[in-house]
Amino acid sequence: MIDSSPSSSAESSFRELDQAFLQTQTRIWLGEVLNTRFDQDNLNISELLQDGEILFEVSKTVWNLLLTKCMELRHLKHKYGPFGSKTSSGRYKPYSNVDSFLKTCKILGLSGIDLFSPSDVVEKRDVRKVCICIRALSKKARSKHLCVPDFDVVICSSVAMPTDMVGVIRKSLESPQCSTLSSSSSFISRNTPLKKPEQVCR
């Protein structure tokens, strides 16, 4: 029997708004980082990320930003940092691309609960988890004073929802099930000047 109660309807509506908010913010944030624009009419976010190429480009951008801040990372024994030698090809290349992104996330300090499995992207198993990881990456990078936009405040004009609903969604994303990151830097505007840290890397 289908539950048509008001509470069930409200929960379903919240899930839809949550999904729309995450996917739209992810698309805009990725475009901001890579200085491009991903047309919403062409591909949905799961198809956009499926080959791992965009995630790979984002990981390179974040890695280069990290290198400029953290001098000791330049002396890593691994010449290519988290990127390996890029020898994978064919059907394995998307997994290699995603793996590079996940390695960058780990180097930045994201923990297991923030991450996703490569199959969540390549096989489109859990796009929401991927979006949450990208949001966590944004927050962690900003906490290290890397010049990336704030996931929560990049302009999202195509998803109309009440302001209070946006707040509820953001709070739900801060819950332990979604992320272990602190919410203290969640809503810093990307136009707000960041203070130069006394010690860049620890």
UniProtKB/TrEMBL annotation:
Calponin-homology (CH) domain boundaries: 20-142
Family annotation (CDD domains): CH_SF
Region (Disordered): 180-202
PANTHER family attached to this UniProt entry: GAS2-LIKE PROTEIN PICKLED EGGS, TRANSGELIN
Source domain of life: Eukaryota
Name recorded for this polypeptide: Calponin-homology (CH) domain-containing protein
Organism: Erythranthe guttata (Yellow monkey flower)
Signal peptide: none
InterPro entries, per the entry: CH_dom, CH_dom_sf
Skewed-composition ranges (Low complexity): 180-189
